[in-house]
């Protein structure tokens, strides 16, 4: 159902450098690019994420309650993705680990260089008998 998510930036060059390295760490690369925005995905047939300078010309701002969640294949991938984001200058919004009463949900939360909130997560839900 989801095609792609777009986040705003006030410094496209800096944001693109951050996401090029971060998404390369999980096997995703650029699939669309203009002077206004860049989008990444593991393949053009899979959901992606884009960074854009706002089309209305106003400064980009962070939405309160808005978050992009990147699904990964294991807790080790979550740990590595979260650490890579921090190495690239992201700020911690909650270290990678199990989350609350949601058995099987493991996530690490961070804010990118523009303050957008993201997480890497792994979901291992075993069906109830």
Describe this structure in words.
With about 130 residues, the chain is an alpha/beta fold. It has one domain (about 5-55, about 65-125): 2,3-Dihydroxybiphenyl 1,2-Dioxygenase, domain 1, CATH 3.10.180. It has 2 helices and 8 strands. The protein has helices at about 10-25, 75-85, and strands at about 5-10, 30-35, 35-40, 50, 70, 90-100, 105-110, 115-125. The strands form 2 sheets. The protein has a 4-stranded mixed sheet with strand order 1-4-3-2, with helices on one face. The chain has a 4-stranded mixed sheet with strand order 5-8-7-6, with helices on one face. The longest helix has 13 residues, at about 10-25. The radius of gyration is 15 Å and the shape is globular. The two termini are about 30 Å apart. The mean pLDDT is about 90.
